[in-house]
Amino acid sequence: TDPAAIRNFCIIAHIDHGKSTLADRMLQLTGVVQPRDMKAQYLDRMDIERERGITIKSQAVRMPWEYAGETFAFHMIDTPGHVDFSYEVSRSLAACEGALLLVDAAQGIEAQTLANLYLAMEHELAIIPVLNKIDLPAAMPEKYAEELAHLIGCEPEDVLRVSGKTGEGVDALLDRIVEEIPAPVGQPDAPARAMIFDSVYDTYRGVVTFVRVVDGQLGHREKIQMMSTGVTHELLEIGVSSPEPEATKGLSVGEVGYLITGVKDVRQSKVGDTVTSANKPAEAIIGGYEDPKPMVFSGLFPIDGSDFPVLREALEKLQLNDAALNFEPETSTALGFGFRVGFLGLLHLEITRERLEQEYNLDLISTAPNVVYQVTAEDGEVLTVTNPSEFPEGKILEIREPVVDATIIVPAEYIGAVMELCQSRRGQLEGMDYLSEERVEIRYKMPLAEIVFDFFDQLKSRTKGYASLNWQAEGEQAADLVKVDILLQGDKVDAFSAITHRDHAYAYGVKMASKLKDLIPRQQFEVPIQAAIGSRIIARENIRAIRKDVLSKCYGGDISRKRKLLEKQKEGKKRMKMVGTVEVPQEAFIAALSSD
Ligand code: GDP
Ligand code: MG
Questions:
Q1: I need a surface site. Which of 120, 287, 370, 513 has the fewest CB within 10 A?
Q2: What ipTM did this prediction achieve?
Q3: DSSP character string of 259-315
Q4: Contact at 8 Å (CB) between 520 and 527?
């Protein structure tokens, strides 16, 4: 295809503002999906995407569009909207020349609208402002067109108004794409360079790699090379998604399509990497390649210890399709054998856990998630701590924790509530701007650890659901952090150790000790529960001793009833874990680890 007839664009929006629905209408209007095959959120293929109504993986679709007697080829890239997947969003943007900035006409600009807009501006994309959902009775297109025009510096009349649901205004939008988004430019005769913006594992076809060709061309059966690793593969298939895969002879400058090489692991086809031709390799990789960096770690343990091999296999399978997932075996005295797993964020953790439970039928316990700390021990050695159990004993010179720049958008009446919450989470106010008279953008620098765990829920409840939040990693800072251990009868229970700010340590210790007091049954001897920082005890509870006699419950001489009780007790024993000399039912661990 002649690059002059190509338009590459993505749709960027705050979550739920209607990207996937608008994409559906485009698939229909351009005729690539027949009405009888249409289903809502057509491009959200994964079960979990359909269930949660969110987009996790990017998608690229080629669609034809007639404009002034000429046929154009559109490549639309539907991007994941969540902050956990922002690196993928940024790669998708890098594959485009333009972006449709979609805003819900009943909601207005939200935090991810801004975050995505700024990303699009960094990539120098042409931006087409669009108000969506104008069919809603609550839509206020005039008001929000002004907000949007003000934000990007255009006239309110330039803001398109559409409904992804009814299709109103969508054909005008498709025309605007031809008019306003520049055609791709590249060097057709240069060595091939194509950027990977997504790769997915397909049971039948192996890894399917989505690329945007920048220079040169890639052809069927060609030998390709991954520039970050130098590894070569033969191209078994090359083609475009329309939206079903269609094999072609090749892809040239500006085109977006897929490659299949027969590899079975997405980590060999990394998002952000550059594909070149092995016989005539290019010199420079496109853009800066980054390895996905896990931000949050948690231990995952099977409730039934014999499921450990199943869990390993399941994680390995998920990893085929998720280069950001990494894990290593971990042993806990309390929870047995499991894995320490690194995630991009809490949504990534939740989704992974849900998939493990649903697709692999596993019952799991996950330990309280924590961020990554840089700990300088007394001898000057710097340790990267992803698990409280790796926290060095002895004196510590410094602990550094990750920090983020957070942006919160709320109606002005909630400024006080938001500031109070952010201050209580060790936030530092960085700035505040009014988007309009009623709505304000508040910026804070905050520790990541304070924002990933239940901050958003708190924010929502304090603002009646009106606040939206976005953040991005912004380096590290030294902080007064300590490790709190929980001890039963003097023995550490590793699964309950946590790294917290010194000011929160006492509260954590008291909470865990009193939870455990209620959860652990009395034993034949007294069991002290202690919370400690190093050797200093900061909280203490006691479980009083009893003499346990199951048979005392049986009044009569019913022997079968007695036998049943004894059997029941035996079964119960299997689910008991020994911590030192203390028997703890596994349920107690699960209950203590579940957040309240
Ligand atoms: P995404 O998260 O941006 O992909 O948003 P979705 O396309 O999944 O849409 C979120 C919700 O808004 C869904 O319940 C859609 O049915 C609804 N929605 C999307 N577009 C429109 C629209 O134009 N009008 C109305 N009334 N609802 C819409
Ligand atoms: Mg979506």
A1: 287
A2: 0.99
A3: EE-----GGGS-TT-EEEESSS--SS-SS--------EEEEEEESSGGGHHHHHHHH
A4: yes
Which protein residues are within 6 Å of ligand 1, measured from CB?
A: 13, 15-21, 41, 53-55, 81, 132-133, 135-136, 163-165
Q: What is the pLDDT of residue 55?
A: 46
Nearest atom in ligand 1 to the alpha carbon of residue 162 is: 23
The answer to the question of whether 465 is labelled as a binding residue is no
pLDDT digits (tens, 9 = 90+) for 563-593: 665 565 555 555 667 777 787 877 777 778 7
Distance in Å, CA 18 to ligand 1 centroid = 4
Q: At residue 18, does pLDDT exceed 50? A: yes
Q: Closest-lying ligand to the alpha carbon of 24?
A: 1
Q: 3-state DSSP call for residue 145?
A: helix
Q: What percent of the chain has pLDDT over 70?
A: 91
Tell which one of 21, 144, 166 to mutate to probe ligand 1, the residue whose CB is within 8 A of the most ligand atoms. Answer: 21
Q: Which residues pair with 127 in a beta bridge?
A: 99
187-216 pLDDT, tens digit per residue, is 999 999 999 988 888 778 888 899 999 999
Which one-letter DSSP state was computed for residue 31? T
For tokens 């749709």, name the residue.
11
Q: Which bound ligand lies closest to the C-alpha atom of 43?
A: 2
